[in-house]
Amino acid sequence: KQEVTQIPAALSVPEGENLVLNCSFTDSAIYNLQWFRQDPGKGLTSLLLIQSSQREQTSGRLNASLDKSSGRSTLYIAASQPGDSATYLCAVKRGGGFKTIFGAGTRLFVKA
Amino acid sequence: EPEVTQTPSHQVTQMGQEVILRCVPISNHLYFYWYRQILGQKVEFLVSFYNNEISEKSEIFDDQFSVERPDGSNFTLKIRSTKLEDSAMYFCASSEASSGGSGNTIYFGEGSWLTVV
């Protein structure tokens, strides 16, 4: 059974700092991995999607990497800003199915 | 930018009542999903829907739940005889494809917060 774990559960950093959020999954037979942002009481905003054949994806200040064999992904946020404060969720989709399994998220607080 | 829209944003219902949550997926998307998030817990998959039938469902999605695409734009989740533990945020989502490139990206709505009292 696929389990997705995110470390740390919470993180507080000063504005301008570069940071890394970690995601691990137990079954490497994934089809893709998606990073989302969730603001309190709101929906999920897709940030980046990495196919299982890819190693990384970039969008602006965000860079996500995937090491399928070790069951790990990282989300790198450069030059963090207070507006980046949110919960970041990692989710994996297994091959041959429609189900996406989520981690519990990392709650990020960027201090001005 | 196209988005998934959900109504209502918040609904309070008496235990035992039926609830219908509505969603309008992104117009050219073919795959539709319902997820839920109980307060303080992980987002959980409920069901996926493609070509007018359920393509996959979780163990949570029992006979109490049903989904329907009544027309070309709406996608609904019906919860019969609601229980206290059904209180959660319910998210509708859609994707253009299930396989192949960025079409896999799943787009979520803002959610419908259901409170069962």
Can you give a write-up of this model?
The complex is a heterodimer of chains A (112) and B (117). Chain A is globular, with a radius of gyration of 13 Å. In chain A, the strands form 2 sheets. In chain A, strands 2, 4, 5, 9, 10 and 11 form a 6-stranded mixed β-sheet that branches. Chain A has a 5-stranded antiparallel β-sheet with strand order 1-3-8-7-6, with no helix packed on it. With 112 residues, chain A is an all-beta fold. Chain A has strands at 4-7, 10-14, 19-25, 30-38, 44-51, 56-59, 62-67, 72-77, 86-94, 100-102, 106-111. In chain B, strand 7 and strand 8 form a beta hairpin. Chain B is globular, with a radius of gyration of 14 Å. The chains are: A mainly beta (112), B mainly beta (117).
Relevant terms:
heterodimer, A: 112 residues, mainly beta, 6-stranded mixed sheet, 5-stranded antiparallel sheet, B: 117 residues, 7-stranded mixed sheet, 4-stranded antiparallel sheet
Strand content of chain B: over 45%
How far apart the termini of chain B lie comes to 36 Å
Morphology of chain B? globular
Number of strands of chain A: 11
Helix-strand pattern of chain A, N to C?
EEEEEEEEEEE
Largest interface: A-B, 24 and 28 residues
How far from one another are the termini of chain A?
A: 41 Å
Tally of strands of chain B? 11
Largest sheet of chain B: 7 strands, mixed
Output the number of helix runs of chain A.
0
Write down the secondary-structure element order of chain B.
EEEEEEEEEEE
The percent range for helix content of chain B is under 10%
